[in-house]
């Protein structure tokens, strides 16, 4: 069954205690020599899980610093507590809307319970790597392409939660998960580029049409103002001449009423 901090390690039994006592006597008799086999040291970022006759001796790992073991009866396993990062290999994933993409990521984790990481799983590091790959495929399989491209933070948080729950019995704490890259097929990239270009062209046409509509409304309002005041037309004519003269143009335009032109055309 999975080892927990509250589970009992059990008794060594009569034979076990006899072996422990004999080992202790052996250490005392050959003290100058056996001291080198009894004293062990672990670094600040390491912990030691001690097994005595195959049983875990304490509910808490030893270290950092110096600790003692009995030769012949005790063995120990060092556990690194530092944060470990690894790359998730690119995974070919079929999204919810039947699009095949290649996605990779990175996972950061550390050992939170050294005893559980040794007693409950044979290789916590390798098991976490395999679980991260399957979790990536399972989570992204429920997302469509738009969600995959726009909601990377939410996907990473969902993966972290799933991994953390699954590795809790292994004494592993998943600190962070990130989606590194999403590779789309070339045909899909071209289709998405064409779609984006068509969208931009449609938006440009709509903006141009709105500009024409606003300009026509402004011209209509200007014509109404000129119709109310005949002198406004003359002022507009003088302003036009001023604009032409500013460009050093010798051409002068004289507006003629349509009534006069139609009179000569009848003749």
Automatic annotation (TrEMBL):
<feature type="transmembrane region" description="Helical">
    <location>
        <begin position="15"/>
        <end position="39"/>
    </location>
</feature>
<dbReference type="InterPro" id="IPR043202">
    <property type="entry name" value="Band-7_stomatin-like"/>
</dbReference>
<dbReference type="InterPro" id="IPR001107">
    <property type="entry name" value="Band_7"/>
</dbReference>
<protein>
    <submittedName>
        <fullName>Stomatin (EPB72)-like 3b</fullName>
    </submittedName>
</protein>
<keyword id="KW-0472">Membrane</keyword>
<comment type="similarity">
    <text>Belongs to the band 7/mec-2 family.</text>
</comment>
<dbReference type="InterPro" id="IPR001972">
    <property type="entry name" value="Stomatin_HflK_fam"/>
</dbReference>
<feature type="domain" description="Band 7">
    <location>
        <begin position="37"/>
        <end position="196"/>
    </location>
</feature>
<dbReference type="Pfam" id="PF01145">
    <property type="entry name" value="Band_7"/>
</dbReference>
<keyword id="KW-1133">Transmembrane helix</keyword>
<keyword id="KW-0812">Transmembrane</keyword>
<dbReference type="GO" id="GO:0005886">
    <property type="term" value="C:plasma membrane"/>
</dbReference>
<dbReference type="InterPro" id="IPR036013">
    <property type="entry name" value="Band_7/SPFH_dom_sf"/>
</dbReference>
<dbReference type="InterPro" id="IPR018080">
    <property type="entry name" value="Band_7/stomatin-like_CS"/>
</dbReference>
């Amino acid at each position: 069954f999975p080892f927990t901090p509250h589970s009992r390690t059990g008794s060594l039994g009569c034979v076990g205690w006899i072996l422990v006592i004999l080992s202790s006597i052996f250490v005392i008799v050959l003290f100058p020599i056996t001291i080198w086999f009894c004293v062990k040291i672990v670094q600040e970022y390491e912990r030691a899980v001690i097994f005595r006759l195959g049983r875990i001796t304490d509910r808490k790992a030893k270290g950092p610093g110096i600790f003692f073991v009995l030769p012949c009866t005790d063995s120990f396993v060092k556990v690194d507590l530092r944060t470990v990062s690894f790359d998730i290999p690119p995974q070919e994933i079929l999204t919810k809307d039947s699009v095949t993409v290649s996605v990779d990521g990175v996972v950061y984790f550390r050992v939170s319970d050294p005893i559980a990481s040794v007693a409950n799983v044979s290789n916590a590091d390798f098991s976490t790597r395999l679980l991260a790959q399957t979790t990536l495929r399972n989570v992204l399989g429920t997302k469509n392409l738009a969600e995959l491209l726009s909601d990377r933070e939410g996907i990473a948080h969902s993966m972290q939660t799933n991994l953390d729950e699954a590795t809790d019995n292994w004494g592993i704490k998943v600190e962070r998960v990130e989606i590194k890259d999403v590779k789309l097929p070339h045909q899909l990239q071209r289709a998405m580029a064409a779609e984006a270009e068509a969208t931009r062209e449609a938006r440009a046409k709509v903006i141009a049409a709105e500009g024409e509509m606003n300009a026509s409304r402004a011209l209509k309002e200007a014509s109404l103002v000129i119709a109310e005041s005949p002198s406004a037309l003359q002022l507009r004519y003088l302003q036009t001449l001023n604009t032409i003269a500013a460009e050093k143009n010798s051409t002068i335009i004289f507006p003629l009423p349509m009534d006069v032109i139609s009179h000569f055309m009848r003749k």
